[in-house]
Amino acid sequence: MYVLKGYIYATSKIIKVKTRLNAKYIVLTYFIAFVWCINGIVKLFDLVPRHRLIVERILGSEYSGLLTKAIGFLELFMCLWVLSGIKMKLNTALQIAVVAMMNTMEYFIVPDILLWGKLNAFFALLFIILIYIRFVCASKLSRVNAVG
Question: For the whole model, what pTM was predicted?
Fold first, then answer.
């Protein structure tokens, strides 16, 4: 009887851990996808001209409108990729690399155009941390699912 109680206790612990991890994973997935989606739409439809100005200052004015739309399209693709959960390790690495590179360039080249100036780098770091936490939750979930 003691073995059965121990099994039930362990199983209930696994279920609680699984539920918490799953909730965190879902919330982070939708939040991250939302950020990519909003940024993509804003750039694709030129709703915030500041984004085009940033691209213009970094890459030149000749194709800034087209490049801004292309970046917006790629951000929408990233949103869908995040939601799909396909190749999560690659997706996580690419998101972190893109956000870090983009914000590093903006920090040094166009801090005067950024919404929060150089403080944008802080928000980018927070976003990178959330992306990484989502990956950790997914990894733990896969381990918990393998156990129980």
Answer: 0.88
